[in-house]
Design a protein that fits this description.
This protein is mainly α. Helix content is about 75%, strand content about 0%.
Length: about 170
C-alpha cells in the first residue's frame, strides 16, 4: 500500500511522479524535477499569451472578412478561417494537456514542486507582454500570406467564371 498524505511536505524525494516508476530519490533529482516543472509552467503561460493573440487575430480577421464580403472585396476566405480554427484548436489542446500534467505534479504534495510551478507561472506571466509583442508579427505574417493565397484563388476563380460566362 502507498501512503498518501493530503498536505504539502518539504521532502527531497518524489515517488511515482505522473507515471509509475518516475521517481526523484535524491536532492539533485528533485532539483531537476523542479526545474522542469518551472520551465513547463513558464512555457504554459507563454502559450496562453500566444493563444490570446491568435484569438484576437482570428476575431479581427472575421470582422474584416465580413466587411470584405459585404463590399465584394475578398481578403481571404474559408482557408484562412480553417487555418485559424486549426491553430487555435491545436494550441488549446496542448494548453489543456500541459495544465493537467502540472496539476498532477502539484498533487504529489511536494512543496518544492508546488513552489517551482508557482514561480514558473509568475515568471511566465511577467514575460507575457514581451511574448505578445513577439507573437503578434508572426501570426500576422502567417495568416496574411494565407489570406493573400486565398485572395489569389478568389481572383482566379472569379476571373475564370467571368471568362466562362463570356464564352457562353
Amino acid at each position: 500500500l502507498v501512503e498518501m498524505y493530503l498536505y504539502f511536505e518539504f521532502t527531497d524525494t518524489v515517488k511515482n511522479l505522473l507515471f509509475k516508476g518516475w521517481n526523484a530519490s535524491t536532492p539533485s533529482g528533485l532539483i531537476i524535477v523542479c526545474l522542469i516543472a518551472g520551465i513547463v509552467t513558464l512555457l504554459y503561460e507563454l502559450l496562453m499569451s500566444y493563444h490570446e493573440i491568435l484569438m484576437t487575430a482570428a476575431n479581427n480577421f472575421n470582422a474584416r472578412y465580413q466587411t470584405s464580403v459585404s463590399t465584394n472585396r475578398h481578403i481571404g476566405g474559408p482557408r484562412v478561417k480553417l487555418a485559424y480554427a486549426t491553430m487555435s484548436s491545436a494550441v488549446y489542446t496542448v494548453r489543456v494537456l500541459i495544465s493537467m500534467l502540472l496539476m498532477l505534479a502539484v498533487m504529489t504534495y511536494n512543496a518544492w514542486i508546488f513552489l517551482s510551478v508557482v514561480l514558473g507561472s509568475a515568471v511566465g506571466y511577467f514575460l507575457s507582454p514581451l511574448a505578445r509583442r513577439a507573437f503578434r508579427p508572426c501570426i500576422a505574417a502567417t495568416f496574411s500570406t494565407a489570406a493573400a493565397d486565398d485572395a489569389a484563388v478568389d481572383v482566379f476563380t472569379t476571373s475564370a467564371s467571368s471568362a466562362h460566362e463570356l464564352n457562353d
